[in-house]
Design goal:
Mean pLDDT is about 80; it is low at about 10-40. The protein is an all-alpha fold and about 170 residues long. It has helices at about 5-30, 45-75, 80-95, 115-135, 140-165. The protein contains five helices and no strands. The chain is elongated and about 45 Å long.
């Protein structure tokens, strides 16, 4: 970025003024981000909060896998069409668990009695999980943010594709 000083001013001693301005600006620049509030972290989220975000997101994925499994148990006729969706949800869980084979949460998931309603519940669960991942982007460091964004997009696609299973 040009300084914008006339050449004569620069050559006739303006250089010392320019240099002193640069020195003062250079010394003041590190102070710009200072604050008395210790909770404001200029270096981004702490490792503890990143681990917590990753654990919460993995827990949501485990709940989604558990919903798929409960739906397949309650409606065996849906097991085959839901299998690829469940596998994708399991892959997401593994990605969030650093490649580890985390077991899905064994919860008592209430499954609607009608197959179409059960698939509708899965669609809503996929959308909620996807929205939760998007909400976590602001608190995530770049690497985790990319993963969450990818998983959120995949979850939104899953929800849309599940509409065909419901029909």
């Amino acid at each position: 970025m040009p300084i914008g000083l006339p050449r004569r001013t620069f050559l006739s001693g303006g250089l010392s003024g320019v240099l002193s301005g640069v020195v003062v600006t250079g010394l003041a620049a590190p102070l710009v981000g200072c604050t008395a509030d210790a909770s404001v972290r200029p270096d981004g989220p702490s490792a503890v909060s990143v681990q917590g975000l990753r654990r919460r997101t993995a827990r949501d994925s485990a709940a989604l896998v558990a919903r798929y499994e409960a739906t397949e148990r309650a409606h065996p006729e849906l097991a085959e069409p839901l299998a690829p969706f469940r596998e994708v949800a399991l892959a997401h869980l593994r990605a969030l668990s650093d490649g580890g084979a985390s077991a899905p949460a064994r919860r008592d998931v209430e499954v609607p009695g009608e197959p179409a309603e059960a698939v509708g519940a899965l669609i809503e669960a996929e959308r909620r999980t996807s929205e939760g991942r998007l909400a976590g982007l602001a608190d995530a460091p770049p690497e985790l943010a990319r993963l969450l964004a990818s998983l959120a997009a995949a979850g939104a696609a899953q929800a849309q594709l599940l509409e065909e299973v419901r029909a």
